[in-house]
Every structure is written in structure tokens, then in C-alpha cells.
Amino acid sequence: MLALMKGWPAEWRERAQHVVDFFETKLSLQKGDAAGQPFLLSPWQEEVLRLAYGPRHPDGRRICKVIWLEVASKNAKSTLAGGVGLYELLHSGSGGAEVYSVARNRKQARLVFLSGRAMAIDSAPVAERLHIFRHSIEVEGDELAKFEPLVSDEDTIDGVDPQAVIFDEVHRFGHAGAGVVRTLQAKQASRRDPIMMFISTAGEFDTDTIAWELHSYAKGVIDGSNPDPTWVARIFTVPQELDPWDEKHWPLANPNLGVSVSIDFLRDRARAAKKSKAAEAAFRRFHLNQWVAIETKFVDIQLWDACPKGDLRDVLRELAGQPCCSGLDLGSTRDLSAHALLFPRPGETFDVIVRCFMPVERLAEHIENDERPYDVWAREGWLTLTPGNVIDFRAIRLSIEDDFRAFKLRDLAFDRAGAANMTQELDLTLGEQSGLPEQDRLNVIAFGQGFLSMSEPTKDLLDLVRAGRIRHFGNPILRWMMDCCTTVQDPAGNIKPVKPDRRKHKKRIDAVVALIMGLARARLLKAKVEAGAGVSVYEQRGVLVF
User: Fold this and answer.
1) Does residue 504 register a pLDDT over 70?
2) Is residue 73 part of a domain?
3) Residue 350 near residue 522, CB atoms below 8 Å
4) Is residue 283 within 8 Å of 244, Cβ to Cβ?
5) Is the domain of 56 the same as that of 123?
6) Model pTM greater than 0.70?
7) Looking at the DSSP assignment, which residues form a beta bridge with residue 123?
């Protein structure tokens, strides 16, 4: 750090040392193997703090007003930010210092706050100056000073007077975040020495978001094309042109490698990332800190085409009376709906029958808007046209009842959105309230559309397609929707399909969503049959007929 401070006046050095001493002598770490040990700053953390808090104007005001810290996941940025929040609360020199940890939702907003809170509780010299509550930290003797989490909603920021604002994962703020950032910045006008800190991993490549705007500004500060002494900006990333699998590049995005993130962890994530494009995109984004398109193509359509087809008319006779499960994705009243049936078959294969429905009086409109031959698909039997200009839910229900009788349909999973009435009627006619014997009923099951519910069957479907174990009979509607389907991935590696914005895209994935939900239930059915037999009956003699 001597080279960094070369030529600095004594006051700058003292100010920089004060914040470093606060971290290293007053605070201790609270997570991982280092829990309970002093917060010894990594060189890159110390550099950021010294640059942000050392340089001063002649009147003593801090030159830095914005800290931009962009680094890969698990590099202790929230912990560092929590310490900054405590420092600003206690040492900003501003009466009634209000410090806010701001994020897109309350859970995220609390992460930085909770890091600061935990360190404050564990530090007697800090804790004795504070009143520490579950959702707030206040300063003894200064009833207006506080450190709190805050959701990035313009309705929640009225009346605040922030000394310091810490924005966590600003890439998640989306298109609405610009107003929040600028409003909070304007509300700092009454403060003599305010500061903003942005901590984030790389986000979605979308030039209309505040995250991309600020990221681009920070790049200019770093490369000198946009000099701004009020910013301290650091972007730790593996450049796109470098080999993402070469371990020697990983420290570029992970300056805390060996401290808060381990090489074994990154190796595990890299192995998982090589299995799919979606997983690779997530690895690049969260662990190499590269801005990538958040949506990733779900499956190579050539792999889909390579799956067995067969003649559905011949196979229908073979499937008659066989147990199956299904997924139901109901569109809006004017839109397309899909019911996908999945039959466990010998050799770890699943047969798939997808029935799609559309209001007949909307046919021409959908042909024009989607540029798809729905009329041809209807003539070929892949699409059922229901009467009127809105979807006839009765027709869909009757179709499901026919499938129940023809195929021993056991479980039907449905998306809660828009399906309440339909599923209630099915429960009355075929389910728990039908009076049918328990072993003959249809189980109607609500299926969540979040990562937790969708990830496992989505990955399962991808694996089955790659192995050629989905027999889809060449259904052209399902093929088109499979080609339309993209997925997103969360930091934990979970994936789910993304429903296209119908205002921007001529794409649909209704049948794919129904297929994924049906597969989840079909896997359970298959497991139950195998568990009852002790060994796989599919391998021995095919699917049991219940």
C-alpha cells in the first residue's frame, strides 16, 4: 500500500488508516472457517477502502462519493459492505447518519445489513455504542442515526435522508432501478459528505438497465476514457476472450480466492457448467463475473430431432390402458393451451403425447401474429380448435377425461395461474371428490413455477433429450416450442424455462412447460412402480398396467 499512498499528505494517510484500523481491530468475521477471527482485509479490499476514504478536498470533505465494486460471487463483498455501513454509521462525522442497504427485495436487502449486524454484536467496542435490533441498528445518544435494510421501491424511500447507501446486486434492479438510484442520490444533497456503494456480480446484458449504465460508466473510470475522481471503481472479471476453464484465469474474477472462495468450489462449479449452455452461462456470470445473456437456449433442436419418433396412430393402440402422468398449462382465454401426457416405457424412455388447444375464431389472428401454420397443424390433428373466440375450458376438461379413461391417467400437474376452476371440476369428476375408488382417482396437483419446483424436471428433460429417450412422434407444435424455449439459472445452479414476452417475441413454450410438469410426476410414478417390484419392472417386462 506504500506505492498507493506515495505523495499523499499526512491527513489523507491518517484518514485511510483510520478506516483500515476500524475493520482490522474492531470487527471480526462471522462466517466460514475464519469465523471469530479479526477482519484482516485482503489487499484489494484495503486498496478500495484507502482510495475511498483517504483523499480529501482542502476543506476536509471526502473526494470519493461512489464506490463501484463488481466481483464474482462468494468474494465477501457483502461482508465488506456491512463493515462500510457500520463505519459510516459511527464515523461519518454527520449527525443523524442514516445508512441503508438497498436491494430488489427485502431478503437481499438484509444480507449486507445482517453482515454488519453480526459484526457489531461480536465487537464490544462497537456494540457498546449501539442499540442493535433485529431489523435496525441505532446509535447511542443519536436517536436519528440508524442502519437499516431498504427495498428498492420508490414508494419506500420517501422521507429518507441518507448519509450512505449500499446497493446490493444492482444488476437485479431491472429497468425500474434507475428511478430508485437517482432518487436516493438526490436525497443525499443535504449531506456534507455522503457516499454510495454499489456491490454486484455481472448481470444481464441489457443496455437499458441502470446496472449496465453504471457498469459502463465504471469501465470508463477504470480505463481513463471517463475520468471521474469522485468514483472508486473496481471490476474483477475474466475477459471473454480467455479460456473460461483454465484455472489460472479464475483469480482475475475472484480476488478472494483461497480466503472466502476455494479452488475446489470453483472446480465443482466448472464441472457442472460443462454439462449445458445454461450452466455455462451461469458459471461465466457468477464465478467469472462476465456479463452474458441471461436467457440460454434450452436444447439443441438437432438433438430433439434425433429422438425417436414413431407413428402415433400405431402407438396409441399400444399405450391404451397404460398408466401415465400429465402436465397442464392453460393460456389466457384467447391464447393457446397445452396438455402433455408422459408414459414411462422400457429402457428409461418416455413416450410423449401433447394436445394443444386454440379458439377457432382466433385461428387467423394467431397465424398472422405467430407466423405459424396453425391451420395445417389443426388439419393434421396436432391442434384442437375449440368453439368461439375464447378458449373453451370445457372442451379441454372433456379431453382430459377421455385421456383418463383411455390411458389410466394417474397424476395431473397444473400451473396455478388460471387453472383453479378447471382443476376443481376435474377433482369433482375424477379426483378426490368424485367418489371413485382411491386407486382409480386422478390426483390433481398444483405445481409451482419457481426454480425449486421446475429445476429438477427441466434438467431431467434435457438429459433425456440428449440420450434420445423421449419419443415425441414428430409433433410439430412441440418441436417449434422446444426450439423457442430458453432457460435462466440462479446462483445455486437451478434452472427453469422462461416464458417469452408476447409483446416482443413470436414464441410460445406452453407445451414445453406442460411437458416438464408432467415429467416430474411421471418420474415419481416410475419410482413407485419400481420400488413396489424391488427391481425395475421396466427392464424386466415393460410398464405395469394398473
Assistant:
1) no
2) yes
3) yes
4) yes
5) yes
6) no
7) none
